[in-house]
Specification:
single chain; 170 residues; mainly alpha; 3-stranded antiparallel beta sheet; 46% helix
Length: 170
């Protein structure tokens, strides 16, 4: 009895949930139309994407060319004009300070007007005096003299065997 009831239940469910052939054919046709419409939309989107891509490439090229033009105009080639050469001659002493720092590099400050040196190095002579010393700075006499140099601030030093400056304390 249970088996019979179960079979009847399955048969009824097939009948009630099944579609007819005409319904299936009409659903297939509507699905085909939807697929065709979506295919056309995809093609339209692809062509629009290609158009936008070409526009972006052209804009990027324009920006790149503008940057190159801007960089080209900012190079020191513009100093060739006669007015700028005259301005350079008129501004004597407005260049970089010519003093050498204790570290051995050129001073990075601008020179004072009418001078080759900045405010700090105004009294700088730039010369290095050489004096023979009878001994080293530690007080031991080696018999060989060292070249004593005067720095830009008046300090006295010599170059040791490692190539470093050794200042002499007074």
């Amino acid at each position: 009895m249970k088996k019979l009831f179960f079979l009847v239940l399955i048969f009824c469910s097939f009948i009630s949930f099944s579609q007819t052939k005409t319904e299936l054919k009409s659903e297939i046709e509507s699905l085909k139309i939807q697929v065709e419409t979506l295919t056309n939309e995809v093609k339209a989107q692809k062509s629009e994407n290609e158009h936008l891509k070409s526009l972006m490439i052209s804009k990027l090229e324009e920006v790149s060319n503008s940057i190159k033009t801007f960089q080209g105009s900012a190079t020191p080639e513009s100093k060739d004009s006669p007015t700028e050469k005259a301005d350079e001659k008129a501004t004597v002493g407005k260049g970089q300070c010519k003093a050498i720092t204790a570290a051995g590099t050129q001073c990075k400050r601008s020179a004072s007007e009418g001078s080759d040196y900045c405010w700090q190095h105004q009294g700088y002579s730039g010369s290095k005096s050489t004096v023979k010393s009878s001994g080293s700075s530690s007080g031991t006499s080696t018999g060989s003299g060292r070249t004593i140099q005067t720095g830009p601030r008046g300090g006295k030093y010599y170059i040791n065997k490692n190539g470093n400056k050794t200042y002499i304390k007074h």
